Amino acid sequence: MDQPTDPSKIIKQADGDVCPAATRWLPRYLCFLRNVEAVDQQCVSAERIAAALNIEPDRVRQDIAVLGVTARAGVGFVVVELMNAIERYLGWDNITDALLVGAGRLGAALAGYTGFAQYGMNIAAVFDIDDHKVGQTLSGKKVHHFDRIVSVAQETHAHMGIIAVPNEAAQEIANVLVLAGIRAIWNFAPVRINVPPNIVVETTDLAAGLAVLSRKLADALNPRR
Amino acid sequence: MDQPTDPSKIIKQADGDVCPAATRWLPRYLCFLRNVEAVDQQCVSAERIAAALNIEPDRVRQDIAVLGVTARAGVGFVVVELMNAIERYLGWDNITDALLVGAGRLGAALAGYTGFAQYGMNIAAVFDIDDHKVGQTLSGKKVHHFDRIVSVAQETHAHMGIIAVPNEAAQEIANVLVLAGIRAIWNFAPVRINVPPNIVVETTDLAAGLAVLSRKLADALNPRR
DNA sequence: TAGATTGTTAATCGATTAACAATC
DNA sequence: TAGATTGTTAATCGATTAACAATC
Question: Which residues of B44-80 are buried (b: 16+ CB within 10 A; e: fewer)?
Fold first, then answer.
């Protein structure tokens, strides 16, 4: 308050820079709040959220702080207000159309998952380069040839691309997605992807969590190395 | 080497305690190595792995260090040797049978994903409490009533359970899985779960990565707050 | 030997946990 | 006012990045 801190830090806080760690928790709070709302409760304290999710109340308050929603001490937050704030913060108050590239095993699973609507996302079209897959439907979505992605991107005004192709192809696909005007890429290939600075990328490696679990299990079943 | 460090640290290193951060990277290396092997290359350096995955070579070496595989300086690692070491470390040299609980949206997607075999895991059976779903098949797997899980667990000798049910039910399901003799739980419900100390849990929240991406996208499309 | 790459140890960075004064 | 809960700041913890001597 009175001690002037390192200026670089001040700037970092001042602009709306995203703190990934906090953002990752917001969907959990939102999910819980939806349940609470369904039961017709008006207010909820950070304590109660924490208890339900089995985490520290401190973290709940810290994560929520970025939203700018204020609570009444002794009472807590207004459920609807907090829900709306999270949805607005994540941009989940509007559905984002996404183009899914890759109709293989993972692509098929993603196309078949009907829960993305809850997270403000809709898979608008599916693409592949394999002529055997092109023309078929995947969970009711038609598979287009990847050549057509630029025109489809323009038609749908999609902002997001989802990469579910083999490692080697991932970077190349990303390049084309950028050319097609895509601004955000959700990458399921276990490789880091290079994109221009105005494009945002998030890589999700499904196998990572399973690897940790498998290792722990191997240890538990067979201790002493 | 000569300075005696804090004893607690020494113990922590001494026993085979898992470092989650390193373990999370191993599937990526494995995936790349499988490609390299397919092209009939015998050796590979940490530098090359790092280049292909677009990360720092230092990290590759550090992560690989836990495996106890040694490389020849100036040449690198023997591909097959390194692959086998990773698979053994993760217990992926044997397939683990898993019981999937929840035949909803996410459960259906997981049951439909045919790629888990690559990660040493097989979904042996699917369970739900909804009578409409019980008896149906999900991607060729029959859906059993959750009541039957204890007996099925014994028949299949499954060690792993996968939770894909709504938040509120997650803890309860976990309790039953433990009673059924399950040792490892892969939890897709965005809640922290309590289990006895001899049971291992890993929670994967699909929405977390999407939340970060959505927020960054919202920022990119609409800067200045 | 010389060049290249390893493997380990130290330094930075970020995220989680703890503490506590401010507020309703 | 008293009790309860917030919101912010400091302390701990772990993970990533950097550095460098050891090795083939």
Answer: bbbebbbebbebeeebbbebbebbebebeeeebbbbe
Could you tell me whether strands B77-78 and A43-44 are parallel, antiparallel, or unpaired per DSSP bridges?
A: unpaired
Summarize chain A as % helix, strand, coil (round to 5).
50, 15, 35
CA distance B128 to A80: 31
Please give the biggest Cα pair distance in chain A: 67
Query: Sign of the CA dihedral B121, B205, B35, A179?
Result: positive
Distances from the Cα of B52 to the Cαs of A188, B32, B49, B55, B71, in angstroms?
16, 8, 5, 8, 19
Tokens of B143: 């859906």
Contact assignment for B112 to A109 by CB distance below 8 Å: yes
Token representation of residue A65: 């702080």
Most A CBs within 10 Å, among B210, B216, B221, B224, to test the A interface = B210
Helix ranges restricted to H, chain A? 7-14, 20-38, 46-53, 57-65, 79-90, 105-112, 149-156, 167-179, 206-221
Show pLDDT as tens, one digit a residue, over chain B (225 residues): 233 333 333 333 333 467 899 999 999 999 999 999 998 899 999 999 999 999 999 999 999 999 999 999 999 999 999 999 999 999 999 999 999 999 999 999 999 999 999 999 999 999 999 999 999 999 999 999 999 999 999 999 999 999 999 999 999 999 999 999 999 999 999 999 999 999 999 999 999 999 999 999 999 998 754
Stated in angstroms, how far is B61 CA from D18 C1'? 14
Q: Which residues pair with A76 in a beta bridge?
A: A72
- CB–CB of B213 and A198 under 8 A? no
Q: In the complex, which nucleotide's C1' lies nearest to the CA atom of residue B72? A: D24
Q: How far apart are CA A185 and CA B70, in angstroms?
A: 37
The pTM (predicted TM-score) of the whole model is 0.92
**What DSSP element (H or E) covers B70?**
none
Q: Measure Cα distances from B127 to B148, B191, B203 in Å.
A: 8, 20, 19
Q: State how far the Cα of B86 lies from the Cα of B74, in Å rounded to an integer.
A: 22
User: To probe the interface with B, which of A29, A141, A217 has the most B CB atoms within 10 Å?
Assistant: A217
